[in-house]
Amino acid sequence: MNRKNVQNLYALGHAQWYDPFKKVWNRLVSTKAEKELAAFLEKNVNNNTSILELGCGTALNLEKVFALDSNFKKYLGLDFSTDMLEIAKNKFVNLPHVKFQQKDITNLNDIGEKFDIIICTWVLSHLQSPSQIVNQMQKLISPRGKAFLIFFSRPKWFINVWLYPLAKYLFKAKPLSRYRSA
Length: 182
Ligand SMILES: C[S@@+](CC[C@H](N)C(=O)[O-])C[C@H]1O[C@@H](n2cnc3c(N)ncnc32)[C@H](O)[C@@H]1O
Fold this sequence. Notes:
single chain; about 20% strand; 5 strands; five-stranded parallel β-sheet; alpha/beta; about 45% helix; Rossmann fold; 7 helices
């Protein structure tokens, strides 16, 4: 999707509604995926874990990490929306092991380190070439590390007939093909 359109979508007017909207979205569309993400974090995060999040938005996933019993080593959240990041930063102040950086995730070449866990949820469908980002992402996973992705994929045709135009118009997102290679 067009980068400018996506940036406009997550500018202030929409950023401030994102968290309440996401609660409804989770209920209607993604209960199972969000539960699986929580279970993944529960299983894989410990005191030594470094976490990279691509397209962290308002840091709802970091809230999930903080809800766990265990601690973590560090978290870096990347997003290109100033307004989404502003909300994220205000949720987590004075925490030296939590960092947010304004960055377009279509170029990850300058991230000079590897992470134990990479999270990327509801972002790939916004990108023109999602497979390129997945390829770059793989290079940033430490040898025994793991990635967890949630994305909008193509549903059955009779749902897609109305969902695709709606998603394109409202969310500037398009479903990923199930058969697209990374
Ligand atoms: C639907 S939100 C998802 C936020 C968060 N991952 C979540 O699950 O709540 C999509 C986020 O991806 C960010 N985004 C989209 N394309 C991006 C890009 N090329 N570089 C950085 N961030 C991007 C948007 O700014 C927005 O915050």
